[in-house]
Design goal:
about 350 residues; alpha/beta; 8-stranded parallel beta sheet; two-stranded antiparallel sheet
Length: about 350
């Protein structure tokens, strides 16, 4: 057989029982979820900033980063809602490379999925406890969702996953804001169809159970740029792109039209420093058009303590081992600048 079954892993309920979210933090999450919901539904004019490392590769440096973010959040919380990126699953275009802490709690050692599931949960809980900020993570593997479903306040579905039936149906059972990225092809219709599927109820098989879902009215679009047939990156954050998305939203029966723009990936042509310019252009365009101001609810920004990236084992504390990120000083300044637009 092509599969070698190594060992049976604990269920989500077993892991959650061993590493529970304390009641005080659960209440904090409830309040944060409500704040974010109000932004997506248009009840609040606050702006979402989903910001943090490309991949959460080290508990100490990630929690250090999030604690810094919490101090900034206190100064901008009347205008912005800062949501730390704590991405514990890293999609890889070719399947090669570091796949996130859930695979390798120590990036320099072999995969250990049991240790990874525990490390993922412990890091998220520690970050909330030390910062008061609940976080975002990417749902790369739908079957892993319930290991941290009681912790997250925002979920992202990536460009390579957004066309997958299981991802769409799983999101339909969420009660938190979930961003569905445009596929790598850039097709807006695929992205909007994914939102439609996620917003409606479904029946399907999940982790060995027959389940029904009620639909997630907080599912929304995320623009992350695209890759054309020649392998070149193209952008979709410009004014014309946002107007086109708005027009397509208006032709579909979708609740709470909303868009978050990813300032990195194909939108920046993977030039991480361009995120500052791109973020400001988007904020400027929101000011030009009241309908776009209502549509664009937030930004995604890749940021860590030290700018750039390094190879696994590079040894620089707080520097990405996957995609390059903005450094802390530039990120802090950008957050304050974004607050000035609101």
């Amino acid at each position: 057989m092509g599969f070698e079954f190594i060992k049976k892993l604990p269920t989500p309920d077993e892991i959650r029982g061993q590493y529970p979210l304390p009641p005080a933090l659960a209440e904090l999450k409830k309040n944060r979820d409500a704040e974010i919901r109000d932004v997506i539904t248009g009840k609040s004019s606050k702006f979402l900033v989903i910001i943090g490392p490309c991949s959460a590769d080290n508990e100490d440096s990630v929690c250090d980063y999030v604690s810094r973010l919490a101090k900034v959040n206190e100064k901008v919380k009347d205008k912005l809602i800062l949501i730390p990126r704590i991405y514990t699953n890293k999609p890889r275009t070719t399947g090669e490379g570091y796949k996130g802490i859930v695979h390798q709690p120590d990036p320099e050692k072999k995969p250990d999925f049991l240790a990874g599931l525990i490390a993922m949960r412990k890091m998220h809980i520690r970050a909330i406890d030390e910062s008061g900020l609940t976080s975002a993570d990417e749902m790369l593997y739908p079957e892993n969702w319930r290991y941290i479903s009681d912790i997250l306040s925002y979920v992202a579905v990536g460009a390579r996953s957004v066309e997958d039936q299981q991802h769409r149906l799983t999101v339909s059972g969420f009660d938190v804001a979930t961003g569905m990225k445009n596929p790598t092809s850039g097709d807006f219709s695929v992205m909007l169809n994914s939102v439609y599927a996620a917003q409606h109820p479904h029946s399907f098989i999940y982790r060995g159970w027959e389940v029904n879902t009620t639909g997630n009215e907080l599912a929304h679009t995320v623009l992350r740029g695209a890759t054309n047939k020649h392998g070149n990156n193209t952008q979709n954050y410009h004014y014309e792109d946002l107007v086109r998305l708005l027009e397509m939203y208006q032709k579909m029966d979708l609740k709470n039209p909303a868009c978050v723009v990813d300032t990195n990936h194909s939108n920046s042509n993977k030039q991480f420093a361009q995120q500052v310019r791109i973020a400001k252009e988007i904020m400027h365009n929101r000011q030009l058009n009241p309908e776009l101001h209502s549509l664009v609810k937030g930004l995604m920004i890749e940021s860590y303590i030290v700018e750039g990236n390094q190879k696994v084992g590079g040894g620089v504390y707080g520097k990405s081992i996957t995609d390059p990120c903005l450094g802390w000083e530039a990120s802090e300044k950008l957050i304050y600048d974004l607050a000035e637009y609101e």
